[in-house]
């Protein structure tokens, strides 16, 4: 059954390689009629036009307008917040999102969350989700992992964070890069409790 919550999902895009995952996840959330609070790091703005056809505007209002056109989103369905917009709902435990996904999640962001840093809105939003015991999903994108990366992931996993490295499977015999992207996005949506047609479950 599709999740019927009216609370928004927070989505953060950081500068690790993997922007196609983020855009496909955002598209899927919009298609599922979910509201999205979107945050994009400065590094992600650099990486996005390298990996996709989009250049992400720096001004939140311009970014929202671009995404409405690109995704066909309803007015106000996708809200974009600046990196130091401390008045954003995600900055306070009094109004946390239902869940938060960082996709892709750089190892620098991973480290900041594991240490409790709140130097920007993405880190603060993750800190809020942790302290309010909401679901936090990190699609970590790096290879190989150093002992520092692994220790940070273990620390957060023990706190209930879902550590989901971008490791698509091949049992569905993917034919395109888009198929590999969909595999991972489907896994994220599943953990959010959102039905989706992107991937055939194992055994079906």
From TrEMBL:
- Occurrences of domain Flavoprotein (ranges): 8-191
Gene3D superfamilies given for it?
Answer: Flavin prenyltransferase-like (3.40.50.1950)
Q: Keyword Transport on this protein? A: no
Keyword entries, A-Z: Flavoprotein, FMN, Prenyltransferase, Transferase
Instruction: Please list the GO terms describing molecular function.
Output: carboxy-lyase activity; flavin prenyltransferase activity
Q: Which residues bind dimethylallyl phosphate?
A: 171, 187
Instruction: State the InterPro entries in the record.
Output: Flavin_trans-like, Flavoprotein, UbiX-like
The highest taxon in the source lineage is: Bacteria
Annotated EC: 2.5.1.129
Q: Which reaction does it catalyse?
A: dimethylallyl phosphate + FMNH2 = prenylated FMNH2 + phosphate
Where along this sequence does the record place binding of FMN? 15-17, 41, 106-109, 141
Q: Does the keyword Nucleotide-binding apply?
A: no
Annotated NCBIfam families: PRK06029.1 (NF004685), ubiX_pad (TIGR00421)
**PANTHER family tied to this protein:** FLAVIN PRENYLTRANSFERASE, FLAVIN PRENYLTRANSFERASE PAD1, MITOCHONDRIAL
Instruction: Identify its protein family.
Output: Belongs to the UbiX/PAD1 family.
What the protein does comes down to: Flavin prenyltransferase that catalyzes the synthesis of the prenylated FMN cofactor (prenyl-FMN) for 4-hydroxy-3-polyprenylbenzoic acid decarboxylase UbiD. The prenyltransferase is metal-independent and links a dimethylallyl moiety from dimethylallyl monophosphate (DMAP) to the flavin N5 and C6 atoms of FMN.
Protein name as catalogued: Flavin prenyltransferase UbiX
Source species of the chain: Sedimenticola selenatireducens
Q: Which gene encodes it?
A: ubiX
């Amino acid at each position: 059954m599709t999740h019927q919550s009216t609370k928004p999902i927070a989505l953060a895009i950081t500068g690790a390689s993997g922007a196609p995952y983020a855009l496909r996840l955002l598209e899927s959330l919009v298609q599922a009629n979910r509201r999205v609070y979107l945050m994009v790091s400065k590094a992600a703005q650099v990486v996005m036009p390298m990996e996709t056809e989009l250049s992400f505007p720096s001004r939140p209002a311009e970014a929202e307008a671009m995404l409405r056109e690109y995704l066909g989103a309803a007015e106000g369905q996708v809200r974009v917040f600046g990196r130091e917009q401390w008045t954003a709902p995600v900055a306070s435990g009094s109004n946390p999102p239902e869940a938060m996904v960082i996709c892709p999640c750089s190892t620098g962001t991973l480290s900041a969350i594991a240490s409790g840093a709140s130097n920007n809105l993405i880190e603060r939003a993750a800190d809020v989700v942790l302290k309010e015991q909401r679901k936090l999903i990190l699609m970590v994108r790096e290879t190989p992992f150093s002992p520092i990366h692994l220790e940070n992931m273990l620390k957060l996993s023990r706190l209930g964070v879902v550590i989901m490295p971008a490791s698509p499977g091949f049992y569905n015999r993917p034919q395109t890069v888009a198929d590999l992207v969909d595999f991972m996005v489907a896994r994220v949506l599943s953990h959010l409790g959102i039905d989706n047609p992107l991937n055939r479950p194992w055994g079906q």
